[in-house]
Amino acid sequence: MSTPSTTHHTVLIIGAGTGGITVAARLKRRQRDLDVAILDPAKQHFYQPMWTLIGGGVFEKENSGRPMESVIPKGVTWIPSAVETFRSDENAVTVAGGGTITYDFLVVAAGIQIDWDKIPGLSENLGRNGVCSNYSYESVDYTWECIKTFQGGTALFTQPATPVKCGGAPQKICYLAEDHFRKHSGVRDNTKVLFRSGLGSIFAVALYRETLEKVIERKGIDAQYLWDLSSLDGERKIATFKHLETGETDEIAYDMIHVTPPMSAPDFIKESALAAETGWVSVDPKTLRHTEFPNVFAIGDCSNLPTSKTGAAIRKQAPVLAAHLLASLHGKNTTEEYSGYTSCPLVTGYGSLVMAEFDYDQTPDESFPIDQSKERWTMWWVKKTGLPWLYWNLMLKGLA
Description:
With about 400 residues, this protein is an alpha/beta fold. It has helices at about 20-30, 50-55, 70, 120-125, 140-150, 170-180, 205-220, 265-270, 310-330, 375-395; strands at about 5-15, 35-40, 45, 65, 75-80, 85, 90-95, 100-110, 115, 130, 155-160, 190-195, 220-225, 225-235, 240-245, 250-255, 255-260, 265, 295-300, 340-350, 350-360. It is about 25% helix and about 25% strand.
């Protein structure tokens, strides 16, 4: 650990989430003497894909985090502060609280910004009045509280029109809740389960969409699309939606509501020269190199890569980024390319899961010799047990 000051590092990584830690580990494995520093003020590192299952009562939320110092790769300098501004023309960043860090190469792995305040009424009601969300460590256990104590009425689940981390998560918790209601005598019969999404369909890839549409039909879920949550009245338990094509509004009275909030690139990225018009870091989709600054790379959720924002995508992005950065460092070239691979383990109930894997063209790119578009218990086991083990023991150590 070090404190902010005017210092220089060969490689400076912004963010100690999945992308930052994985890239740092891969760089150090390939060149042990490489000077790598990670800038991030967080004291805990979370395996956030577990939060869906925590909201569904499968795990306690404490199981999802570990102290940050325990996941920083050996030999990497951890600077527990935040970036304030990028000075890309000077190969420098200004650090919150004072100080400047210069670099030879910059990797932006800053994740995604959750815009709780974009929906009036959400922030002040989160964690009470039946308003829950798996997208906050502080509130994820309230999701399970709402589900397990639900005795009937209207259970409402939302998905915004913006990109979100783990685009399947908003529907997963809906399926788990419906399954829980069904397993408790009398609850499901007295419940309306509603899913309202700002997107145009339940899933982008046709192969998996067909399965999910059947899941929705089987479970009796009222799913409607192009409806974006615009405000919440927590005291009256009223959610107001706006239709993104017609502009009409609709008010829905609920007894519990799981909100997936709108998300965007972090403000300090939006305000920098690194940002594309969309606000995300502008990178080449095959190499992850910045489109204007050749010594800058980005990975994961903060980038404008045209794929889902998932940890599985980072697992395939990291080796490509590391290869290009090290090749540039040594004046060489590499032909490695990222295909746009991502994975979305779509939980459809307790003990069932559709393992969606696909590339930039939304073509299935599957890992197992089975039909992954079908709901399977084995894929549930992979999600529940296999992937967390792989994450902590292999991926964050640069081995997978």
